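Title: Request for sanity check on Glycosyltransferase prediction

Description:
We are preparing a figure and want to confirm that the structure record we downloaded matches what your pipeline produces today. Could someone re-run it with the sequence below and paste the raw structure tokens into this thread? We only need the token string, no images.
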Amino acid sequence: MDARRADVFSFVSGRSRDEAGLIAFRPPRTLRRVALIGNYTPRKCGIATFTADLKSQLGHFRPEIDVAVWALDDAAARMEYAGVAGTIDRNDPSSYAAAADAINQSGADAVWLQHEYGIFGGEDGDMVCDFVNRLAAPLIVTCHTVLSAPSPAQRRIMEHLVARASRLMVMSSKSRDLLVQCYRAPPEVVEVIEHGAPDRPFGREDAFKAERGLSGRKVLTTFGLLGPGKGLETVIEALPAIRARHPEILYRIVGATHPNLVARDGEGYRDGLKDLANRLEVADVIEWDESFVETEELLDQLEACDIYLTPYPGLQQSTSGTLSYAVALGKAVVSTPYVHAQELLAGGVGVLIEPGCPDAIARAVIDLLDDPAELAAMKARAYARGRKTIWPRFAAAAASLIENAVARAPQAGPRTHPSLQGVRTMTDSTGMYQHAVGTIPDRRHGYCIDDNVRALMLVCQAPAIEPRERQALAMTYASFIQYAWNPDRQGFRNFMRFDRTWCEELGSEDSNGRTIWALGVTAATSSDPDLCHWARELYDEALAPVAKSQSPRTVAFVMLGAAAMLKVRPGHGPSITALADGADLLERLLGGARRPDWAWFESLLGYDNPRLPQALIEAGEALANATWRATGLETLAWISDRQRAPAGHFRPIGSETFGKPYAQLPFDQQPLEAHAAIDAAVSAWRATGDRAWVEHAEIAWNWFFGANDRGVVLADSGTGRCRDGITPRGANLNCGAESILAFQLGYCSMLALAPDIAGDSGKRVEDRTQQDRRPLAYT
């Protein structure tokens, strides 16, 4: 087998790289790599503890998941973190950008972000929005707070996270309902996983009380960072009544004052509570532990408690880790009815009381202490309820969440010609429609010359089209192009309404350049002499005015058309001039925009990026200019490297990149870019014979079939349709003309790498009417 046939062997046979020298599509590795973002210990807050618990419990119960922590830090109060992949300065946009780039390069299978408005920089933490825009891996977001009445900024942030996330985790059903009803989250991506909790034996209060010298006392406990949102003054106001009935009580308040509150007000809040206790003469039944205790010490202290109190005045709190711990340890709980408490304490697991009411707290505590049997029964109910949240179950649910978010294993592209049914469906007697709603042509947006020139190139090149249909389709698209020519303006119109009226007198420069390209390709590839003659005539009329453009992509399209024309009209002066002038312009642009890490023609990355180096390669080949050829290969290698994920699959420049200097964002990904990558790789392979370009073309081709950042299948050879791209959440289900044609033309380019497989393809395509028409996979 000669080298070039070997290069495409895996495309034809589906065999592995070990057998054919190309990329292998093996089953996914069992190891999952997850980048975990959030506050992290030793920072003293609930989210830091949750992030640490998530990492440690996955590590213990699910060792196949490798968790790399990226800790949110603060330049004003740096901390020393152990065992983290990196830190992110919460107030520095460049730090978020650098972390996102590092995470993308790490090959993480998923990114799991802990969200709370106060932990990210900017207004209400809006720096998180640009950060998630830069992440390529599927995003999981834990929504620690879901507000029913958010501010406009808070709503915007949450809706942005909802739109980017592959999976959303909440810890209560109420939060799930809010995300679906108020923030438009698709129900299927929201999962309820209750806060995890320790698995310890039941009923050890006496032993742990004895260790702390508390034997014979009835111990009430509240734990957490102190602040006005804890409602502790309400409990202190209830203590006189409780003490009068049960003088053996002790109220233990465990936890440091919140660092933000200390920075602003010192210990004023705690001092105020102590003053209140002194005035009410209950200071002697209050014990203060003013440290931030680690988890194991906290659990020990909870074990020594009879009744756990969470008198929070705010009722929107979605999660309380210490409440989960207390229930799992079998503690009776008296709480205000905030969201988490309502759900966790339902069914007699605890007692719910109205907020801000000392009398209600006193009655609930006294009733439990008056009835030891009911107190014991409530503890038993709590312990039984807590079995649902113990760490092994939490870790299993977390692992399932990760697996549901991670992209499916890549698949090799099919080896049969795509049906033209998708093209036929989008074409009427006027031309090819622009857009579709799902698979249904959308007449509201009419037609454009961009799609009709691509369609003309397709029907001139695609194999196995019955001659009469090839001619009929070609005439339709050519007629559209001819009608689009505006001799008064010396250019082509672009957009046409469904009623065949034009939307403008002159289309964009890029649409004009693409038309010149199509005319050159038609002249070079059509088997219809009359169509070739028409293409040459219109090309000659339009080339000079269109070639005046200084727009890089317009210039590249014109150059590609000129290179194609020279294959059938060697020595054609206007085409030679267009190639030479275009190559000189691109080289000048490259010199002006280049910097050490940016070997590109502009400071911006746009669409159809590989067309610029492809045009230089084609110019170098057509005019025997080694410098242009070398520059084209160098810049194509640069853009190809940027469009390849660390895992090896194709990652096209996302449309969100457009307009952002020296940036690259991964979404939305569009089929146009995969087609351009295949085409340019074919030009490079023809110029060099380097097998690496064959591999790159195949990687871009397999992007259509699930070898992508979301593991979604976009193209279906049975119908010839293709989805409109990949969003952060998966496939855009619409099947517009540009996407269908990118897929179809991409296949034609792949055939250029394997001309020997075209022999029997006609029969295979003709036989497709007898096959099942598989619908596209809706993902």
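Thanks, this matches our download. Residues 1-29, 756-779 have pLDDT under 50 and may be disordered.
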